[in-house]
Structure formats: C-alpha cells, structure tokens
Amino acid sequence: MPYTLWFDKAGREAIGLVGGKNASLGELIRADIPVPPGFSVTTEVFSEFLSAGGLKEKIKNLLSKIDIQDVSSVENISNRIRQLMAETPFSKRIEEEISFNYQALAQVFDVHDLPVAVRSSATAEDLPGASFAGQQDTFLWVQGTDEVLEKIKLCMSSLFTPRAISYRIKMGFPHEKVLISVGVQKIVDARAAGVMFTLNPTNGDPSKVVIEGNWGLGESVVSGICNPDKFVVDKVTQEIDKAISLKECECVYDPVRREVIHADTPPDRREIPCIEDQEVLELTRYAKRVEAYYGCPQDIEWAIDKQKPFPLNIFMVQSRPETIWSQQKKEPVLGKKSAYELLMEKALSRVKVSS
C-alpha cells in the first residue's frame, strides 16, 4: 500500500487510504474546480506507525480505561496517548517518502521550504449523517521538511483529543475503525477567505448560495472569532444581497514569529467588502458546480490568492456535505418566492393576450 498519493490521484474510491477531506479534494479536482496542489500521507502510514513498538495495543488498553462521564478521565487518557505518539518516531522509509514528495511540491513553485497547510483527514470525517469535521488538527504556513513531519504526527495524534474520543463514543464509532490520513497542501496566500453554503443555512432555502468571508486566512471565519461579511446570492438571477460587517480582526502569517496570528484589521479595510462582486459571482458559480457534482448541498471553504489576478485567484480548499438542512424534509420558505417563481412571474407579466 502506498505511503503517499497526490490529490489528483485519489478520490472517494480511496477514502480508506486518504480520508474524507483528502478524498473530497480529489473529487473537486475531477470536477474541474481550482484546488491548491498537494498530496496525502495515507492511512497506511498511520497504521504502520501505530504498529511500531506496540503502540496500537498501548492505545487500545488506555482507551478501555476511559470513564466517559468523567471529563478528567478523558483528558488524562488523551494526554497519555498523545505523549506516547510524540515519543514514537516514524520509520526512515516513511520520513524519506514524505520528504521526497514535499520537496517535489516545492520544486513545482521553485520555492525552497514552500509554505503548506498540514490538515488531518480521518476516514470517518465529512460523511452524511455525522459531523466529524473540525475535530482533528490543522496547521497553517508550515515550512521545511522537519516541521512538516512534526505537524503530520501532531495531526495523527489529534485523532485522540478529548473531543474526538468523546464524539466517537457518543456516535458509536469504534476507535480502531477510524484511521487518519494527512494532507500536505500548498497554502493560499489569502487576501480574503471564508466559507460558503449551497443553501441558506439560516432557513434551508436551496435557491441561494451564502458566502461568508473576512480579510486574510479563513481561520478567522471557520473558528468564529470575527464577524464576517455575508453575501446571499440567488442561484438563478445572480442577485447579491450584501451584509458588510465591521471586521476588526483577521488571521495573517507573521514572518517574524513564523506563525499564524490574530491581528487587528487596518482601519481602512474594516468596513469595506473583503471580496468584489465579480469574485462573489465566481464563487457562486463554483458552489453550484460543486453541488451539482456531489448531488447534495455542500459546505465549502474558499480562499482568494493575493498574488494572482482574477479569476485565477480563486481556490476551493475543502468541501463537505451540509449536515443540518440536507438531513431534514424540505419545506417551502414562508414569505419567500423561489428564483424560479420570480422568473415565471416576470415572464408571464410580459405576455400580451390578444383578442
């Protein structure tokens, strides 16, 4: 079994190897959606890593001692498992293959120590009917082989955070059945970023695309630390309803501290839209294409690259099934007319009846 797979080589048929998040990236590429390039460190690496030094049995033994009603018990077991994993080295073969792929990715852009995002991708993640998304760790602006290897291991050990352990127990997912892959992806140097839904998450209206965004990296929107701009777009008429917020903070990379930080937004950008109308409409076009490809409502993460011209600056970095309204019976939105109904009204109003 392979230790690594490039995103464009593995879609949903390989979810057991690359996890839900990375498989989704492969599918987006197949749907001709712009995705930053990268590769998956497969679940084979995770399985082999756990086999080293009897780590798998030690973890199984610790998990069997958890008292799910006792928060301190869950936290204690989680800490012990993650410490064991931190102390266990990758094999030389695993390190060499990951290093080779990272360097190959860097060479594509002719950048030494290319900045990448290192993201967890569990095999039980992003599935309809359950929301495992966001339970494992993501690291942004990781540079250099040593740091990439370090963050990959931290992603793997995040499968055993207190939150992840508790949720699997609650949902009845056996711990040993959930494997983890890790994605290593060229980071988007984002002018703005955020999320979008292919239905209105407030009321379930499927005729709308709702886009939320902020200046800088998307973490400020995903984590909820800012009040993002909101754009509600009609899928048919392309009418944009804007709610521009006061954006006082953003997530940016600090080259001195070599980490992503929360920074104050410059005053001249706080009350203006973080994306232009043409970018809103281009994002909407991609949202509709992704929804049509998957055949169900989607929750999508996007980013606008500050280094590229429109429309080459728009990237999707994740798509997952929307897990709230898509699981409910569809009801009409009271007091609202669909785009189709509005268009039919306009068309009929133009029809002249001849006598």
Can you walk me through this structure?
The protein has 10 helices and 13 strands. The protein has 355 residues and is an alpha+beta fold. The chain folds into 2 domains: 4-186, Dna Ligase, domain 1, CATH 3.30.1490; 190-333, 2-Layer Sandwich (D-amino Acid Aminotransferase, Chain A, domain 1). Strands 9-8-7-6-12-13 form a 6-stranded antiparallel sheet. Strands 1-2-5-3-4 form a 5-stranded antiparallel sheet. Strand 12 and strand 13 (314-321) form a beta hairpin. Helix 3 (55-63) runs antiparallel to helix 4. The longest helix has 18 residues, at 277-294. It is globular, with a radius of gyration of 22 Å. Mean pLDDT is 90; it is low at 331-355.
Q: Which secondary structure elements does this structure contain, and how are they paired or packed?
A:
Blueprint: E1 4-6, H1 15-30, E2 38-41, H2 43-51, H3 55-63, H4 71-87, H5 92-108, E3 116-122, E4 138-142, H6 145-157, H7 162-171, E5 180-186, E6 190-197, E7 208-215, H8 219-222, E8 229-234, E9 240-243, E10 249-254, E11 259-264, H9 277-294, E12 298-305, E13 314-321, H10 339-349
Antiparallel strand pairs: 1-2, 2-5, 3-4, 3-5, 6-7, 6-12, 7-8, 8-9, 10-11, 12-13
Which terms would index this structure?
13 strands; globular; 23% strand; Dna Ligase, domain 1; 10 helices; five-stranded antiparallel sheet; 355 residues; 2 domains
Instruction: Compute the average pLDDT.
Output: 90
CATH topological fold name of the largest domain: Dna Ligase, domain 1
Structural class designation: alpha+beta
Q: What would CATH call the architecture of the largest domain?
A: 2-Layer Sandwich
Q: Write down the domain tally.
A: 2
Question: Hey, roughly how much beta strand do the residues contain?
Answer: 15-25%
Apparent shape: globular
Q: Spans of 5+ residues with little confidence (pLDDT < 50)?
A: 331-355
What is the share of helical residues? 25-40%
Supply the number of helical segments.
Answer: 10
| Quaternary structure state of the chains depicted | single chain
Top CATH class of the largest domain? Alpha Beta
Count of individual beta strands = 13
**Main beta-sheet annotation:** 6 strands, antiparallel
CATH H level, superfamily name of the largest domain = ATP-grasp fold, A domain
Round the Cα radius of gyration to an integer and report it: 22 Å
- Lateral arrangement of strands in the main beta sheet: 9-8-7-6-12-13
Distance between the ends: 76 Å
Secondary-structure element series: EHEHHHHEEHHEEEHEEEEHEEH
